[in-house]
Amino acid sequence: MDIRHLQYFVEAARFQSFTKAAQSLYITQPTISKMIKNLEEELGVVLFERTGKRIKLTDAGSILLEQAQQMVQSFGQMNSRLSELMEMKVGHIRIGLPPMVGVTFFPRIIGKFREKYPKITMQLFEHGAKKVEADVGSGELDIGVILLPTNEEKFDSFCFLRQDLMLVVPSSHKLANRDEVPFIELKDEPFLLFHEDFTLHDRIIAECEKLGFHPDVVYKSTQWDFISEMVAANMGIALLPEAICHELDQERLRVIPLTSPSIPWHLALIWRKDSYLSFATREWIAFAREVLGHEV
Predict the structure, then answer these.
(1) φ/ψ of residue 276, rounded to 5
(2) Are 151 and 270 found together in one domain?
(3) Domain check: are 275 and 135 in the same one?
(4) Region 178-199 average pLDDT
(5) H helices within 145-278, ranges in order?
(6) Rounded CA gap, 122 and 149, in Å?
(7) Measuring CA to CA, which residue among 108, 129, 118, 45 is closest to residue 88?
(8) Structural domain for 201, as ranges
(9) Tell me, what CATH number does 10's domain have?
(10) Least trusted range by pLDDT, from 14-23, 83-92, 213-222, 284-293
């Protein structure tokens, strides 16, 4: 027995006629008669009394009709919900964003996506890139933004921004008027870093150690604007992404390119490889790829 048997049975009961039910279903009368006969044989009961061209429900038929109507209605509702989902009318997406990435790039993208798909809800989680990557890997998040490189065996991704970290110093600093600064000249400077949850924390320390020194870290924060204010207060120097530096107070702070080496800041959207992605998540990835490709 499948849903078609029940649909044909309900229509036959509604019209009390195999011929009229067949016309309603756009099938032949012998087809519906055969389907009802198969259903009766499978259930072991007679569902209709047949008198000439007229049919009438038996007691067993009346019992089945009550249940069959509910099942056919539920099946129709399920198909409707799936159709809505596949047409991107409904859905839910969990997105992980590092704080400085979210405030810089994603408000306008999320706004445009909501305009196009108002019934798709989005839940945003602000964490450092390391936690975002871990939560996408565990399935707690559908997609996330991280700092490359990432585990290519575990994640699919696309890179939407390639910039470098910039040196940020107070306007009164001895390096403030330089056109560029070799990294090694920072070895005696007090550093203001992001918290350990941020990939940049480990990356900056690793670059320092490659040059033979361990940075003097005087403060760590999760907020780039607080770090920049501490730099302006002459508490230390910071290395911030180029995109963030555009938001800084240019009168109190100086932004200088780093050399020998420069530190890349490459952002990517990631999702788990070889795992199911909801229709809404797939559409978000395609939408973000298109919008970020044009705007960033």
Answers:
(1) -70, 135
(2) yes
(3) yes
(4) 94
(5) 199-210, 224-232, 242-245
(6) 26
(7) 118
(8) 163-265
(9) 1.10.10.10
(10) 83-92
